[in-house]
Each structure stands twice: as C-alpha cells, then as structure tokens.
Amino acid sequence: MRRVLAAAFVVALGVVGGFAQSPQSITSSSKSKSAFAPRSVVNKYCLACHSESLKTAGVVLEGLDFSNVASNAELLERVLRKVRTGEMPPAGMPRPDPALEKTFTNWVMSALGRNAAAHPNPGRATIRRLNRAEYSNAVRDLLALDIHPGDLLPVDDSGYGFDNVGSVLSVSPTLLERYLSVSRLISRLAIGDPSTKAEEEDFVPAEARRVGGARKQRNEPEGDDLPFDSSGGLAFSYYFALDAEYTLRVKLGGGQVGNDPRPRYEIRVPVKAGLRTVGVTYLRESAKAELEAPRLINPLTPPAPIPSLPAEMDVRLDGVRLKRFEVPHTGNLPPQVTDVLVAGPYNPTGRGNTASRARVFICRPSSAQYEESCARKILARLSRRAFRRAVTNADIQPLLTFYHAGRREGDFDHGIEKALRAILVSPDFLFRIERDPAGAMPGTVYRVSDMELASRLSFFLWSSIPDERLLTLAEGRRLHLHEVLNQQVRRMLDDRRSQAFVSNFAGQWLYLRNLALAKPDPDVFPEFDEALRQSFLKETNLFFESVLREDRSVLDLLGTNYTYLNQRLAEHYGIPNIYGPQFRRVAFTDPNRGGLLGQGSILTVTSYPNRTSVVQRGKWILEALLGTPPPPPPPDIPPLKSKNAEGKLLTIRGQMEQHRSNTVCASCHARMDPLGFALENYDGVGKWRASEAGTAIDPSGQLPDGTQFVGPAGLRQALLNGHRDEYLETVTSRLLTYALGRGLEYYDRPVVRAIVRKAARDNYRLSSLITGIVSSTPFQMRSTPENVSHQEIAATSHVSTQLRHRNSSSAARRDGARAHASQKHGG
Amino acid sequence: MVPALTLAKNTAANPTARLGFVYVPNGIIMERWTPISEGAGFAFSPIMQALEPFSDRLLVLSGLAQVNGRALGDGAGDHARAGATWLTGVHPKKTEGANIQAGISADQIAARELGKTTQLGSLEIGLESPTLAGDCDSGYSCAYTNTISWRSPTTPNPMEVDPRAVFERLFGDGDSTDPASRLASLNEQRSILDYVAADVNRLKGELAASDRSKLTEYLEAIRDIERRIQKAEEQNATMQLPVMERPSSIPEEFDDHARLMMDLIVIAYQTDMTRVVSCMIAREGSNRSYRSIGVADGHHSVTHHQNDPEKIEKTAKINHLHTQTFAYLLEKMRSIPDGDGTLLDHSMILYGSSISDGNAHTHDNLPLVLAGGGCGQIKGNRHIRFAKETPMNNLLLTMLSKAGLHPLSKLGDSNGFLEDISEV
C-alpha cells in the first residue's frame, strides 16, 4: 500500500509545479531573495502593534521566522491579505512606500507559492449530495427526461455563496420522502405507465400570477418557441405521459366577450408521448384594433361597446398549429390568455416511442427466457451511468430483485420501472462519494481516481453526471493525462450542458438568483413586470454565456461594448430600433452601458424595492467583484440625518457624506459609497436617469486611495485599471469554491494566485481560468482526514508503522507517506 | 377549501397535547406590543388586538431572553443567531458553511417523544422561500436564518413553503387517498428503503469517519420514514383521511399563502398526523415587502427604523399582519372539536421572535405569546413579566414537560421551570 502513494506524489508535484513556479516567478523571487529582507519591513511597520507584548488582534509578528514559510503559511497569508487590501498598516500609521510594499508582498507571495508547491495540500471536501439543479440534470442525462424534477425537492441551503457546498447539504426525512415520491414520478414517466390516471394541469403566464400586481397589456408572447408573427399568449413544455388523447383548454380573462355563455376554447387531440411544447398565441395582425373608438354623441349615455373583428388565436403543439380559434372581443386588444389547461391521458394507446424509452431499452427480450439477461444488461448500464463508476454484480443483484417484483405485477417494462425507481433513491446516485485509498495514513495526499475526476469535471462544468465519453476515458485511466483533460474541458465547455455552469455559477456568484425574489414597488417602478424580470435574467445569462462560448477574457465581464437585448429591454434602456421579443446581440456606442455593471439584473438585485441603495451596490462590488467585503455594520448605527446643521434638507449623497464624517462609519462607507454613487444614474430597476426628484445626479466619486471617477464608465475603468488583480483573484476564488464544493482555506490561496498568474498568458480567458482550476492540486487531489481516532486507524489499517506518524506535523506526515510509495494509485 | 373530514380518534378522557412554535423575524415594535398592565385581565396592546378573542386561552410572556443570540465575541450576525437560538438556546457556530452547528431544538425534542404515536414526528412550515444567493447574515450560513428547527445540533430541518408538498407529506402523493392503494404504495416504499439502508450501511463501511456523518443523516431519515410507514399501516384501518383538494402552487399573496398553510397545520393536528409543528412566518432577516397592507419597503429595512416614525409605523403594520395570521390559526383550532374540547384547548402554541427590538438587535425581553389550553394545564388571560434575563429556554422546558415528555432537567441554557404559566 505504501507503494501506491509515491507515484501520486510525483504527479502532484507535476501538477502544482506546472504553474506555481513559472520561469518568471523563479527568476524574480531568486533575484529579490538575495537583496530583500522581509523582516525589516515587518519590524519597521508592524511591531508597533503586533509585538510579543501587545499582541493586537491576537497577531504577533515579532520574531516571525521568514525562513520557515511552511509553519507560518496561515499567518503569512493573513499578513499578505491585509497589506494588499491596504487595511494594514491602518490609516494614520506610517506605511511603506508603494515600491517597498510591492517588493514585500511579492516576496511573501513567491515564498508562499514555493511552499505550496513543495507541500501540496488539496484539502478535503466532504461527501456531497446532489443539489436540486444537479439532480434535475442527472435525471435528464441519465434518462433523456428533461422535466426538472429537482424543483420538486426542498430548496438547498447554501454556504460560501454556493448551494453545492457539501457541508451544508443535509438530509432530512422530508427530503427523503420527496426523493421517494419524485423517483416514482420519474420512473413512471421515463418508462411510461399505462395505468397513469388522467389529470388536469394548469399553466399560467408568469404575468397573470401576480395577483394585485401591475398588469399591463404589453401582450408579448411568453416563451421562445412561439412564431415571430405572434402576440400575447404563452408557450410551455409539457410531458405527455403516454400515447393518448389529451385536451387543451384555453381560458381568457379581461373584458366582456359578447353575450354569455363564453365559448369554450378547447380541443381534444391524440398526442404521442414525450416532452412537447404547447403554445397558445394570437396572430399579430389580428390582435390589432381594427376600428377606432366612436366619438361620444351623447355624453350622458355611455356608448355600447363596438365589437372589433375577432382575433385569431392559434393553439400549437411543437410549433404546428392544431387549431385556430376566432376570439370575439371589444377594445384594442383581445382578452389575455390567463390559463392553459392540459388534461389527460385519455384512451391511451401505448407507452409510445419516447427518447427516454429509447435510452433505457437498449435491448428487448425476444422471448421470456431472455428477459432476465436483458434486464441485467439494462440495469447494469443505467446504474453505471447513475453511480458514475464501474458496477459489479453486488450492485445489480438487488436491482434485479425490484425488477422481478415489478415483473410479477406487470410486464417486462414495469419491472424495469421498479428497478429504476430504486436506482434513483440509492445513495450511490444521490451522493458524490470519493474513496480514500485503502490503508492510507492520515493526512496522505493522493490523486483522485480517474472515475472520481470524471465526476468532479462533469459536476463542475455541467452540474450533472459524466457522459459516456468521460466514463470511457476514465475507465481506460486516460482522463487525467494533461492533453486528454484539456481536450475534454474544451469539449465540455462547448457542449450545451455547460449552460448549467452559467446559471448555477454566475447565478450565485453575481446573486442573479435573487432576481426571482426581487419585488420592485409598482408605484415607484410601474414599468417593472414579469416580462422585464425574465428579460433581465436572460440578458445576463446570454452575456455570460457569450464570454464562455467565445472564450473571452473575464475582464470582458466588466467592460465590453455589447449585450443581448429584445425590444422590451432595449426600450427600458433607451436604445432605439430593436424590435420583437427575440434576444439579439447589440453593440453599444454609449460607454456607460456594457458589462455587468450596466445590466438591469444586477442593478435591481442591489436595490431596495422602492429606491436605489448606494450602500448595497457598493457592497456588491466589494463582495462579488473585489473579494473584500466590508465588515457588517455595528449594532448602534446613528440614524441618517435628513438635514444639516443649518437645517437645510440633504440629498442622499449629502446624508451619506454626513454619515461618513463619523470615523467608525467612514472606515467602511468610504470604500462602499463612492462605488455605489457612480451607479446612481441607474434607478432601482436599472433604467437610466439624469436626475432624481428634480436634482441632477452627481455620479462622481473618489476611493480612499485617491482614485477619482465619474459614472459607470469611469467606475469600470477604475476597477479595470486599479483593481484588476483583486477582481481576477476574486473570480478565480469563486470559481474554485464552486468547483470544489467547499470554502477556501489559506492553503488554497497560492493555488488561486498561480492560476491567475498562468492565465495572464491567455489574457485571462474564462477557459484559461477553468483549465487552471481543473489542473490544480485541490481539483485533482485529495488528502485523507487528519483527525482519525486511534481506534479507527487500528481498525482500518494494515500498516503497523502508521501509528508512529500520528503526532507528527501534517506536512511531515504527507512527505513521509510519499517517501515510501512507488506505484501509481489507480482506480 | 373546507375539507370534509372525519375526526381522528382521540379520547375525551385523555386528550393529547399538540405543540406549535410560530416564529416571526426581525423583532417587533415593543412599545406597541407589550401590554401596559400585568396579571389577569390585562389590556391588549395595539399589535395584539387580533388575539383578544382568544384571551382566555392565551398568556403574554415578557422578560424572557435568548442570551445566546448575542454576539458573545462573534461580532455581527444577530439575525442568524436569532433564528438559530429561538428553540435551541444554544450559541450557534459562526461559519459560512463548514461544520454548521447549533443545538437540537425544542420542537425536535418533542417530536422524538410525541412522534412515537403519530405518522410524522413533526412538520416544518415556512411562508417565505429560503435565500437563493449571496450571504445571509454576516458570515453565517443561510441554514441559520432559513430554519428554527434543528433535528440535531448539526442537521437543520428545511421549512417547507410549498403547500402542495406539505399536503403530499401528510397524505401521500398516490393517485388516490384510498387506504388500500396507499398501503400498497407504502409497501413499495418500504422495500426501497430496505434496499437503500443496506446500501448506506455498506458504504459507511467503506468511508472515513468524517464522511460518514452525511450517510448517518440519511440512515436516520430512512428509519424515520420506516417508522412512519409502520404507523400508517397500523392506523390505516381506523383512520379516514380528509377529502381535500391537493393545493396546486404557492399562492403569490402573503395572506392566501399563509391561510392555506395554517389550514394544513390544523389538518395535520386534527388528523393526528403529527403533534408538533414549527412555522416561520418569514425567514429571519426577511426583507420581503407587504404591499397588501401598503408596505412596499422590505421588512428588514424598516425594522432598522432609527426612530423614523414612518418606518416604525410600517414595521408595526407588518407586526400586526403577522399577529392576524396567528389569530387565524387560533380561530381555526378553536373551531375544531377535539375530545371534550377543541383543538385549541388541547394545544400549546408559542408565538414570537428571538429579537425584541429589531432596530438594535436585542435578544432579551422577547415578544412571546403562549396560546392554547395545554389540556387544562395552562391558565390563560394573563400577562406575566419574568425577571430580566430569565432564559426563554425555561419556557420551552416547561412546555415540553406540560406536553407530557419525560421530565427533562435542562435544555440549552435553561436554569429552571416557569410554573407561573399554570397557576397564579
């Protein structure tokens, strides 16, 4: 067993050394090493507070041994962070000049980088259950069934900003009950259950659900699947469980429609089983008012409503018109579609020929005697994919028991349905499990198996299970090879499934998910509605996706000259000549729009329901973009004063300036507020404004370091020029947290810096950061837990010498373990 | 949505106590909450108006504290600590994700005991979806603000916000609520659970100790459901399930959503599916707006009113709305006959917050109301003021003991019982 680990060590050095010691960094560090003594800087600028006797904030830097970086890595990371962000030395104390400060931080960074390369510590993410998004995608990829079943599970908690962090993904009885229930639904739909009873489901346009909210007749089609010439209506996906008849019924709201009883807009049609798009829409031409309103002849008697020509409403299935209804109406627009009800299946004729069935039934038993072998084949294939590993007879046998139970009740397919349900509740499916090499000592660093690497990759980039290609490469133990891995990353990013990366990573990194919860006040922002909310989200998703697909620099996220707009959004932003509901790429000439900071999604989630918040916007920039969140406010905040000493009313800017005259408040607000003020030209839902309540907006600001800027364009330049490194390290840290599913520790910091440094050669393309993460120590490796109890070691170990190592330092233990090893850890 | 239903079996001689814990976030405007007079026949305060009809089944309790909600060296994060301490009295570990830890909550201690005879140990209900992105409170994991119910010190229970999911937890998701088909479906579940349990046990053997805790959670969940299935089988013959329409989606308006959920809570008690319910009217630190009562600002923002009368007014309006929601629950419970009285007579439902003044984040003198007759053990119609800093956990401990749990001597930071709630 010892032999296993040595090769892992060799590989590990290869991994880290690949970029932690790039040629430039070696030369610069060796040059500076001879000329520069970091101790002199610390002694001069830090010991006034961090001496042995004062121990301010519990930090002692007196006598810090700079030759032993390994033992002081955690403290040095802290020092580095405080100095780089300018927090230390604190305001009012003497500080080194910028050149000296840079020499010092460079020295510390190089030293920490060398230390990380020499003593790689990949940390250890705990066993993780799939979150809702991963569950949905896994079912989709396993069964060709795209019905988002994860939405039926309880909402996951999140930690470190992401809901794929293992330690907060707990399991409750409620969750397990839902797993049982949802697995039944999924297996019945995937296989097709002839005993499915007819049900009616109600689909409502998002706008109509806002009872009491502002409902305006924008009459835009909802959904991308409606034809260009449509107006109003909606489209949605519906999974037709069987080949059968279904009824589609449209309910219309709004004004009077001739004499009662209202006509029923209903059809009953045979539909083939599977996921299909149901669309209901008016034809654009027919939706226009055909007659002018009559002049009032006698103002005392209101005129009888004059009927317009009937509007033509189409009911479509997968884009094909099933029926055209004539809808009589008065007024300018035909009544809005409030509900579409789908009911069925009636008179089923069969399970149908669905994508799911094609995926599952890779064989059909020609006669009863072949049933068992075919079932075995089907279940072996399904479980291998579902469990993301090679399966054995011990895995298949219990599944066959379910198959047999189902077969006794019904036919062959019914048996498979029952076994499939069990697969979907199995811990091998629901949990991402990585196994330590048998008998490995505590603190041993090892490379994860190719199969485990396949899962790490697919959950990182697709939020889903590995596909056949990844599994095959992993089985051949080729996936970890540098060339192969890079090819696969490229392939995976090009694949449609990487959209999950956009919605899950960007959605949480940028807080876009909170847009669903934002409730702008309709009295203040009457233009905000569901269509606008959806457009905001779509804009940012398309924009982020373009950076991914076109392999652009992550710097482009802050500053580019294009975005994606439809007519609605273009009108909102004041950009002319964009027509129709389809999104398209639009280049700007206005330097203020462009980049995330000009997008309605982010501007709305950082606002209050009824006004903008310079503090929230500033905090968002510090947190999400620069990675230097301000500390939380103290409990006793003095109220903002609406008048100054002379009794004159103050603007928000004036009030905040007064607030900052308090030094305690100023320590944070001096950083936050100027950033937020630069965005004040965008109102609480991202619309441009030159003035607020009659006062012209002053979008100028100055950061504590003296940087001055005006407006969004100026802010963007200030960030890109003066804070590029913070931004790049923040993006990389967020990516790494998301990729690993754990919070980052001090020993991950050199990894982050090395990834950024290496990506510089590629102009910080998103793919270069992703590739850097995929080839990093924490992504490729894992360490066994440090704190294993005596008994447990005795129980699991076959190596008597292990106990000797228990009390030595972890770094020494890791090195010791490697020194013994000599054979590659496969598996 | 009036369910037609047959009453669950309950004997008049030995009524069962139901426990409920209804939480409101961000504190309450205390000067409009605390009744001026004390003792019997106190005058109801403005925010409490809606509760006056239940005065004979209601105690207002002042002066209690959850001191572990204070920073105690951990800095900011009072909202997270409020949610985490309300039913635990344990200072939560400050962490964004790794190793979240609070304490087991009173509802879950009750569920372990009272749940032995019901299908569900407890029900956790929320009226606001958990936060989806961003930080929740000053470096605390969102788990602390999303729930008040902790199954173990490391396992928070999710609050279910979807009425349909609650309905299906109670009555199953089968095509029919008919007992025979329900039984068949339960049997199938049991065989799946057997398979899964065997698989989990095998995996546990293969993993390091630090990885086993998640699987242990899974195993505990399996046992919980197995126990439930067994109960369901035992009770299936005697129990008739309500004929109630399965709710479709989460209603958009607070009031509609709240009432639907309160109806489901009452049905859960009434059918004796569970005797323990915890409910968050909104998650701690909630910033939702309540336009139906004219409050367009976020709840959290207005609670930091800094003595601005307009914001105080808005906060009070929200407080009032929440109290009305609670009154709706009490009204429903009072209307349901149960043994020799009503459901309300045979219950103890605690309402309140773990923050008193939302502007200053104080965790003492908490706003608390205990409603219900507690099967004759609670003497209502009084406002009791306890000594400053009396642990709220003394109240929780007393409630658990009155609910018939084997006498516990201590719970979190408790240091005694509050016998005052029974007799004067």
Textual characterization of the structure:
- The complex is a heterodimer of chains A (827) and B (424).
- Chain A is 42% helix and 12% strand.
- Chain A is an alpha+beta fold and 827 residues long.
- Among the domains of chain A are: 2-123 and 726-819, no CATH class; 199-350, no CATH class; 520-722, no CATH class.
- Chain A is flat.
- In chain B, a hairpin with a 2-residue loop joins strand 8 and strand 9.
- Chain B starts with 17 loop residues before the first strand and ends in a 22-residue tail after the last helix.
- Chain B has 424 residues and is of the alpha/beta class.
- Chain B has ten helices and twelve strands.
- Chain B is globular.
- The interface between A and B is large, with 93 and 85 residues.
Return Rg of chain A in Å.
31 Å
What is the typical, i.e. mean, pLDDT of chain B?
Answer: 88
Low-confidence stretches of chain B: 1-13
Order of neighbouring strands in the sheet with most strands of chain B: 2-12-3-11-10-1-7-4
SSE pattern of chain B, N- to C-terminal: EEEHHEHEEHHHHEHHEEEEEH
User: What would you call the structural class of chain B?
Assistant: alpha/beta
The largest sheet of chain A has its strands arranged as 2-9-4-5
The residue fraction in helices of chain B comes out at 25-40%
End-to-end distance of chain B: 41 Å
User: What is the tally of helical segments of chain A?
Assistant: 29
Major β-sheet annotation of chain A: 4 strands, antiparallel
Count of individual beta strands of chain A = 18
Specify the biggest β-sheet of chain B: 8 strands, mixed
- The structural class of chain A is alpha+beta
State the low-pLDDT regions of chain A, or none: 1-33, 208-221, 255-260, 287-299, 788-827
Q: Which superfamily, in CATH terms, is the homologous superfamily of the largest domain in chain B? A: Alkaline Phosphatase, subunit A
- Helical segment count of chain B: 10
Q: What is the helix fraction of residues of chain A, given as a range?
A: 40-55%
Task: Report the span from N to C terminus of chain A.
Answer: 14 Å
The CATH topology of the largest domain in chain B is given as Alkaline Phosphatase, subunit A
Q: Globular, elongated, flat, extended or rod-shaped: what is the shape of chain A?
A: flat
